[in-house]
Specification:
Length: about 475
Amino acid sequence: MLAIQQRLSNAFYVVLSLPSTAMGFALSVQIAALSWILSTQYGLKIDEIGLVWAAGPIAGILGQVVFGVVSDNVWFWGGRRRPFILIGGVLAAVSMLALPNLGIISEAMGLDGVLGIAIAVALSLDISINVGFNPTRSIIADVTPEGDARTKGYTWMQTISGTLGVLAYFISVLFGNIDLIYIGAVIALLLSVVPPFFIEEPRSETEQVATTLNLKQALLDIRPLWGFLVYAIYGIAARLTDLSAISTFMIAFSAAITAITIAQTLLQKEAGKSKEEAGRIGFQKVLAAHSFTWIGIQSMFIYMFSYVQYRMPTLSDERMGQVVSWSFLILNAIAAVLPAFVLEPMTRRLGRVRTHLLCIASMAAGYGLLWLGGGTELYIYLCMAILGVGWSATVSLPFAIMSQQVDQSKMGLYMGLFNLSVVLPQLVASLGVGQYLGAAADKSLVFLIAAGCLALSALAWSFVKEK
């Protein structure tokens, strides 16, 4: 074991953050370039772009759970998490290289149009990220003690990842999205395959009782997400067949299930329960609160380009792409600075949950401002700076909060289940919000939806108890 790991020095937290940074950088490339390239280079409509983005959450529904369980139980190449980080990084780099070449791939396969190939490539990229993301986050919990040290691990993770995310959008602004994709493939590959060999994983954890995937128990554990799951299944089926006739009913049915299960979850009391049952209730409350956050955030990632087109229709395709890239650069710049240097000290004074709640509330306000205005680039950039506060918390604090609630020997499994509070709402944003915006004349409504979802998320976080 390296001395920096024994001391849990800042240098070790940097090394520990790099594998997650690799996956985050691949995701930043996807956010910056995917919608832009599909819209401007291949002429896909907004609802078709939403369908392409839906491939990622579909990959994550089982991908992170399965890979999390497997990584809990195996040991090869010197670790539990290391093999999946290496494999995920290599596959992500290869998938990114396919993005600028969708037309060539489609022609070579004798297909008409690029929609099918775009979905396949997006699915491949997201499966790759899912292979790596769970282990890169689980390994932080594996090698840090519970408490402030673990919070520091996740806040440093976001600071390092966010800094590299800023670099991704800066490259996009300076050189364009095509160059970003090729540079991003190299960076993601290097940060995935080198740092894991400098992190020693605790072998003793693997000698505990093996983690098994009990589907019935897993379904009960994610009860607050049942409504999202129902809509996700319907939404996918509706795009593959003709189920539009029951669209209104399914939306109402899914919304009712969501309202009932989340209300029941948030009103549960941990007091007087066994440690295991109290932990399960706490975990479910985190799922409920986190899920609404991601409807708003995913809607921003997918439809920001459409919002900019609507607010500033005279912009060229190239300039529109630059405005979107600058917007996400500012978002990630704020998110890079705050976690380690602002949020971590705040958590010591206010607690993790209260700090996170305040950040999510600020994000709801930022989305509301974007809905109300947005006719100038400066206004958009100022709003994105406000959103960066919530984004900095979203990608750091919930992992530390969630890891308090669960069995430490099953961290991979619970990280995978926790990821469902991200990917199922992402599907709602990709399928439901995309369909609604495609028919709406006012594309700024995306941020009214986002503001409402973040406000609900902030309210739900007020019911989460911190140990």
